Amino acid sequence: MIHDQGMFLRNLFLSFGIALIAGGLGLALFLYTQTGMLAPAFAGFIPATVGGTFLLVALKLNSIGDMGPLREIFSFGADPTLPPNAQIAVGTVEGLDRTHLTVNDIPQYRIRLRVRGVDMREFTGELKMLVSPHQMAAVAPGTMLPVAYLPENPGRLYRVPAQRQAEAQALFQRQQVQLGLADPRAAEVSERGVPVTGVVMSMIPTGEIRQGYTGLDATVRFTNSYGNLVERSKRAFLPQSMLGQLGVGRQVDMRVLPDDDTQFIFELNSVDAVSW
After folding, report:
1. Is the predicted pLDDT of residue 236 greater than 60, yes or no?
2. Per its UniProt entry, which superkingdom is the organism in (predicted)?
3. Cα–Cα distance for residue pair 102/133, rounded to 1 Å
4. Four-point Cα dihedral 173, 175, 181, 184, nearest 10
5. Is the per-residue pLDDT at 59 higher than 70?
6. Is 38 helix (H, G, I), strand (E, B) or coil?
7. Helix 45-63 vs helix 2-35: crossing angle, to nearest 10
8. Which fold has domain 180-275?
9. In sequence order, what are the beta bridge partners of 209?
10. What does 57-84 look like in DSSP terms, one character per residue?
């Protein structure tokens, strides 16, 4: 565990620090008693000073608890230093396996995805990330996740940095429209829509399947920007992993155009926000 590595390093710095301070002060006392002069005794303060630095490092490691910097090095795909040439894409989870790494009792998983890039070409890759138990449904096979990759090594995937989430959302919406899985105005709703909470009134399968997505005629009730309780319907195409989030009677997060409440999208649970 990262926690165990942090404890080991803290104890290592602490032990070296105490040993160097004790040894340095002992040396200084010995030289002073042998020579009767302070100048030679200062040689003992050199290792003592180094030991003090080790103690400060140990205290710093203790203050950051579970080794935050090491967590970034050892753990998952989110990389704030991702190079500017990194490409954004949308991946569909095909499977996942647990690794041997755990951080703060949260296990790391190796997630296999089929990825569709900006040019709509597909390839496969792997993403390592920490997934808490309540997030497991968001990385189930069939779920879509925005990912980043380097052109020279597309098989290794990364979480999309926070500053590029909007870019990932826009790409996702464009691809959904191109594949016939979303309304052409979905991107506009995602950008200009206001968040509301609706209640699913009915959810009727159409019998149509596109790109492996199930077609549904959904009717939801919500309060619009004018304070009126309205019912609106739309046809949606969802992966199997998300069908349960739109059960009749369930509350659902949505975005609705403030000037046209017939235009809305669902915001379903995932590790990184995507809208349908």
Report:
1. yes
2. Bacteria
3. 12
4. 60
5. no
6. helix
7. 160
8. OB fold (Dihydrolipoamide Acetyltransferase, E2P) (2.40.50)
9. 214
10. HHHHHHHTTTTHHHHHHHS-S--TT--T
